[in-house]
Amino acid sequence: MHLPSPTGGRRVRVDGEILGLAHSVADLVEFLRRAGLEIEPEQVADSPLIDWRGVGPDRWEAETRT
């Protein structure tokens, strides 16, 4: 999983192909299901199938700078 984009959401990539922009764990699970990977929402944080970059599954919105 990529870092959250400047406008929010995270790009989902499987085997080098971008599947879309997820805004939640539910979105991520749906993208993975469509790619043939069945995973439960409660498994995404610890799944070896998902490479979380920078931050984990609790973060989907853009970073705000103060």
Task: Fill in the keyword field for this structure.
1 helix, 15% helix, two-stranded antiparallel sheet, 2 strands, globular, 66 residues, alpha+beta
Write the layout of secondary structure elements.
Layout: E1 10-14, E2 17-22, H1 25-34
Task: Tell me what the structure shows.
There is one protein chain. Strands 1-2 form a two-stranded antiparallel sheet. By secondary structure, it is of the alpha+beta class. 15% of the residues lie in helices and 17% in strands. The mean pLDDT is 90.
TL;DR?
This protein is α+β, with helices and mostly antiparallel strands and 66 residues long.
Q: Biggest sheet, strands in spatial order? A: 1-2
- The N- to C-terminal Cα distance equals 25 Å
Number of strands: 2
Mean pLDDT: 90
Contiguous helical run count: 1
Low-pLDDT residue spans: none
Percent of residues in beta strands? 15-25%
Helical/strand content category: alpha+beta
**Helix/strand order:** EEH
Query: What would you report as the Rg, rounded to the nearest angstrom?
Result: 11 Å
Largest sheet: 2 strands, antiparallel
Which term fits the overall shape?
globular
